[in-house]
Design brief:
- This protein is α/β, with parallel strands linked by helices.
- The protein has 2 domains: about 1-160, NAD(P)-binding Rossmann-like Domain (Rossmann fold, 3-Layer(aba) Sandwich); about 165-285, N-(1-d-carboxylethyl)-l-norvaline Dehydrogenase, domain 2 (Orthogonal Bundle), CATH 1.10.1040.
- The chain is built from 13 helices and 9 strands.
- The chain has helices spanning about 10-20, 35-40, 50-55, 65-75, 95-110, 120-125, 140-150, 165-195, 195-205, 210-225, 230-250, 255-270, 280-285; strands at about 1-5, 25-30, 45, 60, 90, 115, 120, 130-135, 155-160.
- The strands form 2 sheets. A 6-stranded parallel beta sheet has the order 3-2-1-4-5-6, sandwiched between helices. Strands 7-8-9 form a 3-stranded mixed beta sheet, with helices on both faces.
- Helix 4 (about 65-75) links the parallel strand 4 (about 60) and strand 5 (about 90).
- It is globular, with a radius of gyration of 20 Å.
- It starts with a strand and ends in an 8-residue tail after the last helix.
- Bound molecules: nicotinamide-adenine-dinucleotide.
- Nicotinamide-adenine-dinucleotide binds near residues 7, 30, 68 and 123.
- Nicotinamide-adenine-dinucleotide binds next to helix 4, strand 7 and helix 6.
């Protein structure tokens, strides 16, 4: 089988390399960034997204924003126009449920099946092949593609119909980023109170406030390393989509809204391309304090 992979950035790159490492399939990649493509050793470099689509039986995509995904799939000369009937598109990006449903319907008219398969776990778990994949789509399509998904994941969960994978993903990320916003707030209280931040981190990580979000916020803030692993702009997208979901379902979401507003302030400070943990800089700038470990 020939597998295409379009968008081999922070997440797509390691996921693609795990498919190359863990399966015997031929893999063809395409990315607008030539360096990202070159990093996929063992794959064939595609000439364009259209060329990858035309050549492959299964095409995976991992692209930044819903608008980018829609343009890449349904736009003029998009992937949909080049995929053969009987082939499958798997979208690993984080999108609105309605985007996934639109793509699924448009591809179905061409005889192309689709799974939405957003992922969670961040770059480290994409690299070690343990990320969680939450899949929306028909059961038979899921069953046929499960081995490919399992080749780069620790947990592949079929959530339900197309739209349910994105729903699970948006809820998860709202929890993660609302928790991270609270972690930033707590750390800054610690700084202002003069506590030893290393001790604070040790206490929280062994106590009921522990979380993956607190750990990554603390690690990044204390070292001052905010190079993007999960770009703040992408987290902002996720929280906007989660708020849309709250609107559509009529569920009050004050916690998600607070986290989204913190990210809006961070973007106002020019931090969109930094790591999402750079949200703490909003507090640091407001207070004239920094949450760094004293050496
Ligand atoms: P990224 O920006 O690192 O990677 C995206 C890649 O797509 C880049 O290499 C870019 O050059 C390429 N690209 C953009 N437009 C393209 C196009 N039209 N054709 C071909 N290539 C194109 O982003 P990422 O962090 O890898 O995120 C990808 C998706 O995964 C997003 O939807 C994000 O929300 C989601 N996600 C990210 C993380 C994370 O920790 N970074 C975790 C879970 C989910």
């Amino acid at each position: 089988m020939k597998i295409g992979f379009i968008g081999v950035g922070n997440m797509g790159g390691p996921m693609c390399r795990n498919i190359i490492r863990n399966t015997n399939h031929e893999v063809v990649v395409f990315d607008l960034n030539p360096a990202a493509m070159a990093a996929c050793t063992g794959a064939i470099a595609g000439a364009s997204a259209a060329a990858v689509a035309a050549a492959c039986d299964v095409v995976l995509i991992s692209l930044p924003l819903p608008a980018v995904v829609e343009a890449a799939v349904l736009g003029a000369d998009g992937v949909a126009a080049h995929m053969r009937p009987g082939t499958v598109l798997i979208d690993l990006s984080t999108n609105a449920p309605s985007t996934a449903q639109r793509l699924h319907a448009a591809l179905a008219t061409r005889g192309v099946a689709m799974l939405e398969a957003p992922v969670s776990g961040g770059v480290a778990r994409a690299v070690d092949g343990s990320i969680t994949i939450m899949v929306g789509g028909e059961a038979d399509v899921f069953a046929a593609q499960r081995p490919v998904l399992a080749s780069f994941s620790g947990a592949v969960i079929h959530v339900g119909a197309v739209g349910m994978g994105s729903t699970a993903k948006l809820i998860n990320n709202m929890l993660a980023f609302a928790n991270m916003a609270t972690a930033a707030e707590g750390l800054m209280m610690g700084v202002a109170a003069g506590i030893d931040l290393g001790k604070l981190a040790e206490v929280v990580m062994g106590s009921s406030g522990a979380s993956a979000s607190f750990r990554s916020m603390t690690t990044r803030a204390l070292s001052g390393d905010f190079k993007a692993s999960f770009a703040l702009d992408l987290a902002h997208k996720d929280l906007r989509l989660a708020q849309q979901l709250a609107d559509e379902t009529g569920v009050p979401s004050p916690m998600g809204a607070a986290a989204l507003n913190l990210l809006r302030m961070a973007r106002g400070h020019g931090l969109g391309a930094a790591d999402v943990t750079a949200m703490i800089a909003v507090y640091e700038k407001a207070l004239g304090l920094e949450a760094r470990l004293k050496s």
